Amino acid sequence: MKVLVVGGGGREHALCWALRHDLPFNGLFCAPGNSGTAELATNLPIGALEFDRLAAAIQDHDIDLTVVGPEAPLAKGLADRIRSAGRLVFGPSAAAARIEASKAFAKEVMAAAGIPTAMSHTSTALQPALDYVDRHAEPLVVKASGLAAGKGATVCATRAEAGRELTAMLRDGRLGDAGKTVVIEAFLEGEELSVLAVTNGEEVEILPPAQDHKRLLEGDRGPNTGGMGAYSPVSVATPALLARVRRDVLLPTLHELTRRRAKFTGVLYAGLMIDDAGTPNVIEFNCRLGDPEAQAVLPRVRSGLLAVLHAAALEKALPQLTLDDQAAVTTVLAAAGYPEEPRRGDPITIPETLPNSTIVFHAGTRRDESGILRTEGGRVLAVTSLGPTIEAAQAASRAAAESIEFRGKQFRSDIGWRETRRAAKRL
User: Fold this and answer.
1) What is the pLDDT of residues 133-161, one digit of tens each?
2) Axis crossing angle, helix 390-403 with helix 417-426, rounded to the nearest 10
3) CA 31 – CA 43 distance, rounded (Å)
4) What average pLDDT score do residues 43-55 get?
5) Which residues of 305-328 are buried (b: 16+ CB within 10 A; e: fewer)?
6) pTM confidence score
7) Where are the domains of the chain?
8) Distance (Å, whole) CA 285 – CA 288
């Protein structure tokens, strides 16, 4: 089998790393890929939104299965384009990808399917949105409905702050088209959990649950980012909770999408808030693997990934994955200036003698004409370590992150802090 992974970030490097267990080098391609995927696959210099060139490459290389990593090409119809050419693709149609591309649409689906989620109001005009906020209890959450690269949601402590966010989106166009429709939500208390499920449209195979860390600074302070790290497993994700998520969240969502003639195949990602009573409420849906969650989850899949992706693309019965019982902690190394104005071009030094249990996934890197590895994005590398416990994996990931060098490097040393705190209380 020949497989093409579309995308060039850390998630796509993790996908290539995991798929190499089942594929030889000459059977794996990545477009456009990065410096890390180049060591595992044949990189094709084609952007994820260059649909004509991707379609031609799939034909030229006789690709058997295309796995689309990022949300933007899915929302714009890449999976539809590939299917229309008679080729197999893992990833939802544009109609189904609206579950992420439009938070307003996702709220409609959840309301119709009875999915537990925060009360909300959708608006395209500023004054009605401000009027709703004036009647709303504090705090509240303001979200751009469209894709905003992880920068579209703001927790507002006061109505005045919410008003400023709404004005910036609806009047000033701060987020462009993504912010032309806004969703205003009640604030949910609890602990976040990422549940990623491979689906053929009818059944699901749940990947190891994870928890990510969105804030830039330790202690969950500072600005929101695309994600500064993740860990798996998460002890609040008990078998009983996951069974409830399957029954009350994932399957009803799939059924409602099918009812709307938008059958979803691919990875359905449920971002959940688990309250003190153990009730899961949906914060958001994504139509693909999370990043950096993929870098923590995929190393815990021992075997069966290619088989389950292939079966889902064929809309056939899903085989079970074989999972590793070790814990995984992923620490993201970000460039100087991230997230506002990340600096590019700084040389990177990665030690040659990292432990075998540690994997360095590339995200924003490039090699210059002399072969020197340099920063080329906000989130530069993701360092994943496996260990018998979260504490062991955390220590190994932190040590590896400290040993990698580039100017202005930013990273959090407390990835997984909730889990280590829970473990300490159990002692």
Assistant:
1) 999 999 999 999 999 877 788 899 999 99
2) 140
3) 6
4) 98
5) bbebbbbbbeeeebeebebeebbb
6) 0.95
7) 3-91, 119-186, 191-426
8) 9
- Dihedral through CA 401, CA 235, CA 245, CA 298, nearest 10? 30
Do 191-426 and 119-186 fall under one CATH topology?
no
Which of 103, 53, 43, 44 minimizes the C-alpha distance to 73? 53
**pLDDT band of 423, cuts 50, 70, 90:** confident
Q: What is the pLDDT of residue 79?
A: 98
Strand-pairing partners, residue 198, are 205, 267
Tokens 């969703």 sit at which residue? 183
CA dist 187 and 158 (Å) reads 11
Q: Which tokens hold the place of 247?
A: 């029954």
Q: Which residue, chain included where needed, has tokens 């060098």? A: 405
Amino acid at 358: T
Cβ count near 60 (within 10 Å): 9
Q: Tell me the pLDDT tens digit for each residue of 303-358.
A: 999 999 999 999 999 999 999 999 999 999 999 999 999 999 999 999 999 999 99
Residue 378 scores a pLDDT above 90: yes
- Residue 357 to residue 17: CA distance in whole angstroms: 14
Q: Which CATH code is given to the segment(s) 191-426?
A: 3.30.470.20
Query: What tokens appear for 177 in the block?
Result: 């088209």
What is the C-alpha to C-alpha distance for residues 56 and 238, in angstroms, rounded to an integer?
45
What does the block give as tokens for 391? Answer: 């504490």
Architecture of the domain defined by 3-91: 3-Layer(aba) Sandwich (3.40)
Architecture of domain 119-186: 2-Layer Sandwich (3.30)
CA distance 113 to 161: 32
Q: What is the DSSP string of 351-384?
A: -S---TTEEEEESSEEE-TT--EEE-SSEEEEEE
**Alpha helix segments (H runs only) across 167-275:** 239-245, 251-259
Which value, to the nearest 10 degrees, does the dihedral of the CA atoms of residues 150, 151, 155, 160 take? -160
Amino acid at 225: T
Longest dimension (CA), the chain: 60
The pair of structure tokens assigned to 325 is 């019982």
Alpha carbons 221 and 421: distance in angstroms, whole number: 17
Q: Exposed, middle or buried, 392 (CB in 10 Å: 0-12/13-18/19+)? A: middle
Alpha carbon distance 269, 237 (integer Å):
15
